[in-house]
Design brief:
The chain is of the alpha/beta class. It has helices at 10-18, 55-67, 83-93, 105-121, 144-156, 212-225, 234-244, and strands at 2-6, 25-30, 48-51, 71-74, 96-99, 127-134, 162-164, 176-183, 190-196, 201-207, 230-233. Helix 1 links the parallel strand 1 (2-6) and strand 2.
């Protein structure tokens, strides 16, 4: 299957390196540093385009690729407020698009573990919390992954209604779920969900050693969306992807 890589930074280079392992051929690489753009004739050979750029470029890229009737995997975050417009484009041009805050295979397994734990712990007196650490170059805080984890907790822990990401200069309310963020040095992405009681503390933690798991998830998504139409969130279809594709 032929794919195009839109954005040839660290993630783009890793996608290029790992694509052959999943029987994927990169036929186009789009990036200003390569002096290529979405008008490249090589793009016509691609069955799916994988977009990893930046929040400022993502929506424009999605629009251009949709107009060209290309199925798309979008790994860039920070454009989600445009999701209604993207859905309309997906329907209008009859394409398939997968997007997500985190394409890591391990993290999406972690999402499932957190969901199951929240349902169980909601029946107890344990109080939940979350925190994350990232390197100092990360541009957003909290991360998109932190927001997904918080949403999972809110959906499965009935007592909690609101996610608080900021420093609190007051007593936290019973219906608030606190998720803190730290940025420093070269810390790899680390996300922790915890449950605390008077007797003990239980913690679930995911630490990313490198970007390989993210790249593999995006490539798996590209294979999955190639023959489909519609708008899909990666975390929602991850179980299908995992069971249908061997890596």
């Amino acid at each position: 299957m032929n794919i195009a890589i839109v954005g040839y930074g660290q993630m783009g280079k890793l996608l290029d390196e790992l694509a052959p392992d999943l029987d994927l051929q990169v036929v186009a690489k789009v990036d200003p540093q390569l002096k290529t753009d979405l008008a490249s004739p090589k793009l016509s050979k691609a069955e799916v385009c994988i977009e990893f750029t930046n929040p400022e470029s993502a929506f424009s890229n999605i629009k251009k690729l949709a107009t060209s009737r290309k199925n798309i995997v979008v790994g860039t975050t920070g454009w989600i407020e445009k999701i209604t417009e993207v859905k309309k484009m997906v329907e209008k041009f009859e394409i398939g698009l997968v997007y997500g805050a985190n394409f890591s295979v391990g993290m999406n397994l972690f999402f499932q573990i957190v969901k199951s734990s929240a349902k169980l712990m909601a029946q107890t007196d344990y109080d939940p919390f979350g925190w994350e650490m990232h390197h100092k170059k990360k541009q957003d805080s909290p991360s998109g992954t932190a927001k997904v984890l918080s949403q999972i907790m809110l959906e499965n822990f009935p007592e909690k209604k609101i996610a608080q990401y900021e420093k609190l200069d007051r007593k936290i309310k019973n219906d608030e779920f606190h998720f803190a963020s730290l940025r420093a040095g070269n810390i790899p992405g680390t996300h922790t969900i915890g449950y605390d009681s008077e007797a003990d503390t239980i913690e679930l933690k995911h630490t990313a050693r490198n970007r390989k798991s993210f790249a593999l998830g995006a490539l798996m998504a590209a294979k999955w969306i190639a023959s489909r139409k519609g708008l899909y969130k990666f975390s929602d279809i991850f179980p299908q992807i995992l069971s249908s594709i061997q890596i």
